[in-house]
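ok, trying the design again with the full structure, not the truncated one.
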């Protein structure tokens, strides 16, 4: 309430035009913009093959997730959302995706929600994604699944009341922090991996409930004619089609265009994602958890003490 939210800070530097647009287009589905990103697989395949020979298995999903996390770190305005006519900067980078416990019609689907700071390397993200998927496919369920199961157990009219109340509280910044933590609707980005079920890309709508401003639909790779930039000849190449849906109210078209180029750069050069990224001090305060920020402060104090001791000597 009064611009306060537990999961974000009010974006004071947001463009006034975008601020006005958020009142004209009050719903997220009013502001959805769809575009298709066609990604050549050659460089990713080469990198995956090299790492496989070293005993480490990477997938397109790992590379795409790492590229998105790095994008949010370098282009923080992408990690914004509109709520109640105001633009907010999200605290932390949250990536969501659904995972089947097994590939069968009757197998349940579980939601994975992961928090990142933006400083993670591709290898760190690969390990975490694999661990979360393995945990999801085990007996233990995520907090999201447990919350959904609890809501399913109550009568339908009561579920409607609870959801309606949650929407009202969320709109005014009063939704409990624990609920935002488990909610898959409160995330930086959703990735739907259609490739994992041998299906082409989709343009998935943005949820009007919650705060997600980006939805990425990863399709199955296929062979098609491509132009070789060196020879300018048409050749057969393997490409990956990715359907992207964004909320146009969080930043302008120029900012989005540069962000798309950055994604392409990292997917064409996955080895760049193995290099750690240092967040600016102001973004560390936003993207770090309280525990991580406390550790940073402790390290700074210890460093100052060491410097004082050194200067006395």
């Amino acid at each position: 309430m009064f611009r306060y939210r537990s999961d974000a800070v009010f974006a004071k530097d947001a463009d006034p035009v975008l601020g006005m647009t958020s009142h004209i287009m009050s719903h997220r589905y009013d502001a959805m913009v769809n575009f298709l990103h066609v990604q050549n697989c050659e460089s990713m395949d080469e990198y995956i093959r090299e790492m496989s020979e070293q005993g480490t298995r990477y997938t397109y999903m790992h590379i795409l997730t790492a590229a998105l996390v790095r994008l949010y770190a370098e282009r923080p305005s992408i990690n914004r959302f509109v709520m109640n006519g105001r633009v907010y900067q999200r605290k932390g980078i949250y990536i969501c995706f659904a995972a089947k416990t097994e590939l069968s019609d009757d197998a349940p689907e579980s939601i994975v929600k992961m928090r990142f700071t933006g400083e993670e390397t591709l290898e760190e993200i690969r390990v975490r994604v694999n661990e979360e998927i393995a945990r999801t496919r085990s007996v233990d369920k995520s907090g999201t699944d447990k919350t959904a199961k609890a809501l399913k157990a109550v009568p339908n009219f009561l579920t409607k009341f609870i959801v309606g109340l949650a929407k009202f509280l969320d709109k005014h910044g009063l939704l409990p922090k624990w609920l935002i933590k488990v909610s898959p609707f409160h995330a930086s980005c959703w990735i739907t991996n259609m490739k994992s079920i041998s299906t082409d890309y989709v343009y998935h709508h943005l949820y009007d409930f919650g705060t997600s401003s980006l939805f990425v639909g990863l399709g199955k790779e296929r062979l098609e004619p491509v132009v070789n930039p060196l020879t300018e000849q048409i050749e057969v190449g393997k490409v990956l089609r990715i359907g992207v849906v964004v909320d146009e109210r969080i930043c302008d078209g120029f900012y989005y265009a540069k962000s798309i180029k950055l994604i392409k750069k990292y997917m064409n050069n996955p080895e760049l994602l193995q290099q750690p990224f240092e967040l600016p001090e102001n973004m560390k305060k936003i993207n770090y958890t309280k525990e991580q920020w406390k550790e940073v402060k402790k390290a700074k104090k210890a460093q100052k003490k060491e410097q004082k001791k050194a200067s006395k000597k």
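Keeping the full-length input from now on. The longest strand covers residues 234-247.
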